[in-house]
Every structure is written in C-alpha cells, then in structure tokens.
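Section 4.2 – Deliverable D4.2 (structural model, holo form)

The reporting period included a commitment to supply a predicted holo structure for the target in complex with heme C. Inputs used:
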Amino acid sequence: MDKKKVVKIVIAVVLLALAVGLVGGIAGGNIMYHLKNRGELGPLTRSDIAYKNAQAPAATSKDGTINASDWSAVYPEIALTMGQNAVNSYITSYLEQDPYLVNIYQGFGFAKEYGSARGHEYTLEDVYATARPHALANCLTCKTPNFAKMVNDKGVGVYSMDFNTVYAQMEESVSCYTCHGNDAGNGGKITITHSYVNKALGNNASSIDPATLSCGQCHIEYYFTPSDKETMMPYSSVETMTPEAILAYYDSFDFYDWIQPGTGTKLLKAQHPEMETFLYGKHGKLLNCADCHMAVEMTYDGTVYHSHNLESPLDNPTLLSTCATCHGDTDMAAVVRKIQSRVTARETEVGNKLSDLKDALTAAVSSGKFSEKTLDQVRKLHREAQWFFDFCYVENAEGAHNSDLAYRCLDTADEKIDQAMAILKN
Ligand code: HEC
Ligand code: HEC
Ligand code: HEC
Ligand code: HEC
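Output (structure tokens):
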C-alpha cells in the first residue's frame, strides 16, 4: 500500500469518527450518509434525484459569480460534499517516483516539479505554489471560476495578463460557477463557462454528455494559442480527439512547447487528456464522468443528490457498487488495479528507453558526426515518441479509462524510439 493510500485511509477514519460524533450530537441533522444498498433495489441512481428549481441567491463575490457559500443555504448537501474535495491533500512527486522524467522533460518546467493531482479545493493554492514558471494569467484557466468569469466579461486579452495581478483577484477554487454558471438553481443544469470549449467544438459539443463536458473544460489536452496565449483545445470534434489526430494538428502549424537544450527537439507537453481517453474507451458511449466519480447519496431528510466530492470509484463503496449493474459480481477494483499495474510497468519501461534516446541524441548532436538532415529525422521521431508516451503517462487513470489506448500510445512510442536509435547506430 502506498503512502497516499495510507494518508487517505487515516483521513477517512478521522472523518468517519467525526461524522459518528456529529450524528450522535445533532439528532436529525442534515448529515448525509452513503446508502450502500437498498437490498433488491440496488444503489441509488440519477433517476432517484428530484431535480428541483430554486431561486438563485444573491452573489457575494466581487465579480458576480454565485459562490459555494452563497449556494449552501439552497443546496447544503452539495456545498458540503464539494468541500470534501479537500480530503485528498496528498501530493506524490512523480519526479521522485519516476526519475527518468527529469531527463525527458529537461529544459521545461515539469523537470523542476511535477506532482500528482489532489482535490479541487487546492487548485488555487497549488497553482500559486508550483515551482514551474507561470508568467501569464492563462495558468489560472483550470483553477478557478473567477478566471472563467473574467474571460467571459472582458475577453481573451485576459489570458496574457500578468499572473500575479490576476491571481490577486481570484476568490475561489473550482466551484459552482465553473460547471453551472450562476444557473445551478435551474435543476442543476450544466453550463459550460470556459469559452474555448464551445469555440473549439462548436455544434459538435452537443454530441458529448454535459456531465462529461463539464469535466472536459479542464480534464483535457490543451495548448495556448501562439497569438493570444488563449487556452484552446487542439481539435474540433470527438473524431479528432485521438493522440494521432492531435499530433497531426500540432504538426500542421509547427507547434511546440519547448525546444530541448542538447537534443534540439521541438517537444510537446501533453496535459491530462482524461476526457479524450475516456470517450474512446469501452464506457465512452455508455456512461458519463459523474456516473463513476460522483456518488448518488441521500440525506437523512430524504433528499437524493449527486455528491460533489469527486472520488475514485475504488475508494467509494457506493460508486463501486454501481459497476455491478453491468459487470455483475466481478471484483472491478481488482480488475482496475491489474490494468493499472501493467500499464505502469510498461510506462516505466518505455520512459527509460525514451530517456536513453534523449541521451543518445544529445551525444549525437555534440559529436558532429551526423548531418543536420539525419538529426532532424531523429528529432521528429523523438518528438513523436515523447508525445505518445506523455499522452498515456499524464492521463490520471493509468489505464483504467481505456487500457487499449494506453497500450497503443506506449507501443507507438516504443516503436519510434527503436527507429530513432537504429538511425543513430548507423
Ligand atoms: C466540476 C463540475 C461541478 C461543480 C464545480 C459543481 N457541480 Fe453541480 N453538478 C455537476 C454535475 C456533473 C452534475 C450532474 C448532472 C447530471 O446529472 O447530468 C451536477 C448536479 C447538480 C445539481 C442537480 C442535482 C444533483 O444532485 O444532481 C445541482 C442542484 C447542483 N449540481 C448544484 C451545484 C452547486 C450549488 C455547486 C457549488 C456548491 C455545484 N453544483 C458545483 C457538476 C458540478
Ligand atoms: C476548472 C477546471 C476543472 C474542472 C471543470 C474539473 N476539474 Fe477535476 N481537477 C482540476 C485540477 C486543476 C485538478 C488538480 C488539483 C490539484 O492537484 O491542485 C483536478 C483534480 C481532479 C481529481 C483528482 C482528485 C484527487 O483527489 O486526486 C479528480 C478525481 C477530478 N479532478 C475529477 C473531476 C471530475 C469528475 C470533474 C467533472 C465533474 C472535474 N474534475 C472537473 C480541474 C478541474
Ligand atoms: C467507468 C467508470 C469511470 C468513468 C465513466 C470515468 N472514470 Fe475517471 N476513473 C475511473 C477509475 C476506475 C479510475 C482509477 C481510480 C484509482 O486509481 O483509484 C479513474 C481515475 C480518474 C482520475 C484520477 C483520480 C485520482 O485519484 O488520481 C481522474 C482525474 C478522472 N478519473 C477523471 C475522469 C473524467 C474527467 C471522466 C469523464 C471524462 C471520467 N474520469 C470518467 C473510472 C471512471
Ligand atoms: C453501463 C454498463 C457499465 C457500467 C455501469 C460499468 N461498466 Fe465497465 N465496462 C462496460 C463494458 C460494456 C465494457 C467492455 C467489456 C468488454 O469489452 O469486455 C467495460 C469494460 C470495463 C473495463 C475494461 C476497460 C479497458 O479499457 O480495458 C474496466 C476496467 C471497467 N469496465 C471498469 C468499470 C468500473 C470500475 C465500473 C464502476 C465504477 C464500471 N466499469 C461500470 C460496461 C459498464
């Protein structure tokens, strides 16, 4: 068991103890509990929710976004569970865990610091604290509703403003406005507030379930446009969300995130393509993100709602019990763990080979023995191999969302590394 798990369990036990204490203290209080099962009826589902309309409260924020505490009088269970996104506060350093990363990301911020994701409540704190450089405000895109609001009010010029100036005006981490606008009272209707989503996808956005697209505002691959430094998705439809199509798109205008010192390769840094990976997976047309990450729960007064604590389905018995609808009594946690350990082992293998290629190319460049044409041939393979490796590595489910795609990416990277090495050995 890793350290992160131990921390999570300790926190869970403490919370449970607190909850038990509270239930004893405030009899009949509005405290939610996980309904593990209802006998023959199985777990609660979305169809048990009474989607009701409510008058929006007045906004107390400076920018007019209705924040979580404003909504807490209307939807106490939702505001409370959203606050539980603070429970996972642990960060694993990927650079310590997988030292080859420091070499392959050399020359880019990720070689300085790269830690695992933690709960949504920490987004503002973490973006401020990162050792990676952030000169521009566009780093705030996926951290706070106040930034989305600022873009919506003032236009794309906001992306290239000074980071610290804009940061000082931010009020909340990911919150109600992010996924509902100020319209949560409209039966919890999803509103896409990150303008680049509709800009990139246009009418094709409607082919994606809103409950998935709400997460896809951030859990995606993106880039900053060279002209405005605007955050942008590198595709226009679900069909063009594959790693192959995205690479072709970046190639079409010679886009790169950095030129690596030593190798001279124009490298790309993939972000966290959860939505792309999920949509192409076995569940892509069957489920949405909320189905597996937002448990349907009930309060003591009988209100059924989506928990807004975004958990791993392996950590939450209610979520895990929903798998049985289709998977029967197969132990799905074990299935997932098995996929993840195979994918992770393959990542380590390919990651180390990529690191060797980077060293071999660096040596080849400084040796003066190769023509610029040959070096460019190798650099192209290096760029492609790293892209495919990264597309898998940075996806946070480690194969659980789509094991076929994970292997395809790693196998492609592996082949390209072999081709590049073969050229350098000649
Ligand atoms: C990260 C995105 C996200 C954030 C942040 C978020 N919601 Fe939701 N919300 C959802 C999704 C997804 C659903 C489920 C929609 C569906 O069933 O199609 C939902 C459902 C709802 C519903 C409908 C009832 C239910 O339980 O399904 C209400 C009401 C609601 N949210 C209110 C809020 C409020 C108030 C906040 C802030 C305290 C908030 N939401 C924050 C994504 C979000
Ligand atoms: C506004 C951008 C944004 C949106 C929208 C968003 N997320 Fe996130 N999410 C993040 C960021 C940023 C992190 C990493 C936070 C950190 O480490 O500080 C994260 C982390 C997570 C994590 C990891 C939490 C942990 O404890 O390890 C999960 C799970 C997650 N998000 C699920 C979702 C789901 C499901 C949705 C849609 C209902 C969603 N997110 C919508 C930005 C977003
Ligand atoms: C079929 C269920 C399922 C669906 C649907 C699903 N996921 Fe996941 N997700 C998982 C599993 C399983 C894991 C691995 C959890 C673990 O390792 O504990 C995971 C992991 C994650 C993580 C990493 C969590 C962590 O703790 O590090 C994020 C972020 C995430 N999913 C986001 C999403 C988003 C965004 C969507 C929709 C685009 C989505 N998921 C759809 C099952 C699902
Ligand atoms: C609506 C039905 C449905 C639900 C609910 C469902 N699954 Fe699946 N799942 C499928 C189908 C269909 C497949 C593909 C089966 C196959 O190809 O053999 C699949 C495949 C998988 C795979 C293999 C995916 C891969 O890429 O290798 C995993 C892992 C998985 N499911 C985990 C889960 C977990 C965990 C849950 C609950 C949190 C869950 N599923 C809920 C229908 C479902």
